[in-house]
# Entry
Amino acid sequence: MLATPRPDFRRRAQNRLLPKLLSKTHRVAMGRRFAATFALINESVGEDAFRRYESRTKLFKGPFLISAFEALASGVWHNHDKWMKAKAPARKLLGLVKKMWDTKEFSESKGIGKAAKSRIPKTVSFGKKFFVP
# Structure
């Protein structure tokens, strides 16, 4: 049986290390970036952002899909500065979200039964490359 670290050791480690890793300035900046990421997604696609888009019917359908969340949220997050400088970012993002569903790379990375360990690196990598304004 493994021994758990003593509580005083854990407390000392947290008190010394965490402030160095996450300064208040860094936390505030990341909080703003998080809010801006999801504000843009909401403004462009709204509550359908993470649902499948059918180009035939031109409708978003079905339940929330985690693979869409992984690709879209990580893509907008990683390209945040470019999105903030883009002209008409909401319109551009909506077009990319719709186009995403017809790409071979995204179709191959999503799907029921795909293990998160193999799916997430693919969807995040796809999102970083695809969701550039």
